[in-house]
Every structure is written in structure tokens, then in C-alpha cells.
């Protein structure tokens, strides 16, 4: 039996082949790489909950015998989001919950279908979204950094050999002397090294800026929580969306359920998600301002 899914009534997702097909335009097909496809399947199977980064790394990679870094996870999330956008789904279908994980946006409708045989989807005109397609998007950045096409051999074309270069120089009307040729060669080599070092520095600076922004976003997210009280050894913090006395009392009642674990996880952050009918309780061994380990629980609220 093979399962496939209809997303929001307009896109068909086949996990076995990691393909997305536009039901209104069947020829419009996007093919994700296998890890990105498995990430989407996990989000669909856990719809209505938040999937942590640890769960992604464990289920998508570790249980298949592969250990990867967080960078690989982030890259495949980018591949997934690019594929969803390419097929015509909203940009915010996959929602990031800072320092917790990912979830499908509130209101996302998933319909599960089962067939005895695998449904074949033509890849003739498909868009393939993988690491290579992301790298291709970096080529315009290389041009902006001063890496010119004529300075870099095109893939599949042989680079000019020293013999060929020498023959061309001999055929010129006014050839350079041996000393001038050596100086020109050294200058070209120095320019190439300078350009390469400049590109490397640019990439490092961009990476550092991205990490700083991510860290800053996480810090700003939890800096908006306000301290309520300490009870049973737990320090209770509430999100800024919990304002009314009734919602404060409900949040405190939720946190009391975990009083037995205050010794191990004394820092408790209670969040009411306005766009989702649920409340989350995040319990950590240290405050969010320090490197910590957290566990989370979710409660669906009656409207």
C-alpha cells in the first residue's frame, strides 16, 4: 500500500518519490531531494504539533544510519521551502517556532489517500530542488564578488594548458620576452589568489552575520517573556500574549502539573500561540539566556 497526500486541495505529495504535483496543472511537478521529502512527510504526520530539530535529525537521518550536522538540517529545510513555493503553496506553510522546531501553519488541510500501487508521476518537465539547485543560486553572488566567467573554466570545457598558452603567445605579432611573461604569469596568479581570498572572507562574514542574526532572534523572542512567580522551585515565565487574569490563572494551572520536575527543569516558559489553538509549556534546566536543554508539552485549548 502506498500513501500520498493532498495539501490544501491543490498539491499532491508522493513521499515515495519526493514529488509535488500541482493538481490544477498536472505538468507542473517539483522533485525534492529525499531528506527534504522525508522532512515534509514528518511534518504532515505530526500536523497540529511542533517537530523539534532533534526529532528531524533522528527520524530523517540517524535512523537511516546517517549522522549529519545542524547545517544539513537547515539546508534541507531551505530546499523544502523552495520546493513548496515553486509548486505554488504559501511561503509560510512551514512555520519556525524559535529554539523549538517546525510546524505546519494553522489552517493547513491534509487529505491522506492510499493506493495499492505506487502512483507514477512523470519527471519529464519536473523542477528538481536539491543542493545543486541551491548552489546555482549562488552564482550571481560570485559575479557580484568579482569572479568573472572568463577567469573560471566552464564545467565540461578543458582548461588552457601551458603548451597551448605558449603556442598562442608565439603566434602573436609582438610576443613578450621571457622575463615579461614570467611577470605577467605571477601577476595573474596573484590576482587569482587575491580574488579567492576575498571571496572566502565574504562567505565567512556572511555566515557569521547569519549566525548572529539567528542568535539575536532567539534572544529577542524569549526576552519578551515576563516573570510571573516562583512556585515549587519552578520559575514561571509567560509570553506577552498572556495578558488577562484568566489566561494568567490558566497558564499557572498548566505549570503546576509539572511541579514534580522542578528540580531538574526549574525554568518554565508558558506560551499561548495566537494562530494555533494550543498552549505550550517549555521546561529547561537553565534559563534561555544560557546554553540549555529543554523539553516541551502541548495542550489543545477549547475555543
How would you characterize this protein structure?
The protein has helices spanning about 35-45, 55-60, 70-85, 130-135, 140-145, 160-170, 180-225, 245-255, and strands at about 1-5, 10-15, 20, 25-30, 50, 95, 100-105, 110-115, 125-130, 225-230, 235-240, 265-275, 280-285, 295-300. A hairpin with a 4-residue loop joins strand 12 and strand 13. The strands form 3 sheets. It has a 6-stranded mixed sheet with strand order 8-1-2-3-4-9. Among the domains are: about 1-135, Orthogonal Bundle (Arc Repressor Mutant, subunit A), CATH 1.10.10.10; about 225-300, Double Stranded RNA Binding Domain, CATH 3.30.160. The chain contains 8 helices and 14 strands. The chain is of the alpha+beta class and about 300 residues long.
What are the salient characteristics of this protein?
elongated, Arc Repressor Mutant, subunit A, Double Stranded RNA Binding Domain, 14 strands, 303 residues, alpha+beta, 5-stranded mixed β-sheet, 8 helices
**Overall pLDDT score:** 75
CATH fold category name of the domain at 2-136: Arc Repressor Mutant, subunit A
Can you say what the CATH homologous superfamily of the domain at 2-136 is? Answer: Winged helix-like DNA-binding domain superfamily/Winged helix DNA-binding domain
Order of strands across the widest beta sheet?
8-1-2-3-4-9
Amino acid at each position: 500500500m502506498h500513501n500520498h497526500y493532498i495539501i490544501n486541495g491543490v498539491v499532491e505529495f508522493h513521499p515515495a518519490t519526493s514529488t509535488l504535483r500541482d493538481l490544477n496543472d498536472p505538468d507542473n511537478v517539483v522533485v525534492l531531494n529525499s531528506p527534504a521529502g522525508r522532512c515534509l512527510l514528518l511534518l504532515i504526520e505530526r500536523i497540529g504539533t511542533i517537530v523539534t530539530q532533534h526529532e528531524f535529525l533522528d527520524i530523517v537521518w540517524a535512523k537511516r544510519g546517517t549522522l549529519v550536522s545542524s547545517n544539513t538540517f537547515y539546508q534541507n529545510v531551505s530546499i523544502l521551502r523552495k520546493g513548496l513555493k515553486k509548486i505554488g503553496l504559501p511561503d509560510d506553510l512551514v512555520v519556525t517556532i524559535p529554539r523549538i522546531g517546525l510546524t505546519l501553519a494553522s489552517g493547513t488541510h491534509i487529505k491522506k489517500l492510499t493506493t495499492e500501487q505506487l502512483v507514477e508521476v512523470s519527471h519529464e518537465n519536473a523542477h528538481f530542488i536539491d543542493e545543486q539547485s541551491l548552489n546555482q543560486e549562488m552564482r550571481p553572488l560570485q559575479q557580484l564578488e568579482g569572479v568573472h566567467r572568463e577567469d573560471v573554466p566552464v564545467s565540461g570545457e578543458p582548461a588552457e594548458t601551458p603548451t597551448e598558452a605558449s603556442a598562442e603567445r608565439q603566434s602573436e605579432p609582438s610576443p613578450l620576452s621571457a622575463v615579461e611573461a614570467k611577470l605577467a604569469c605571477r601577476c595573474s596568479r596573484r590576482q587569482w589568489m587575491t580574488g579567492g581570498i576575498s571571496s572566502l572572507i565574504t562567505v565567512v562574514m556572511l555566515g557569521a552575520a547569519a549566525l548572529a542574526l539567528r542568535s539575536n532572534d532567539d534572544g529577542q523572542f524569549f526576552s519578551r517573556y515576563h516573570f510571573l512567580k516562583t512556585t515549587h522551585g519552578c520559575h514561571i515565565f509567560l509570553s506577552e500574549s498572556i495578558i488577562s487574569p484568566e489566561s494568567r490563572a490558566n497558564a499557572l494551572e498548566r505549570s503546576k502539573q509539572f511541579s514534580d520536575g522542578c528540580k531538574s527543569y526549574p525554568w518554565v516558559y508558558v506560551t499561548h500561540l495566537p494562530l494555533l489553538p494550543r498552549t505550550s509549556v517549555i521546561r529547561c534546566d537553565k534559563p534561555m539566556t544560557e546554553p540549555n536543554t529543554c523539553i516541551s508539552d502541548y495542550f489543545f485549548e477549547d475555543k
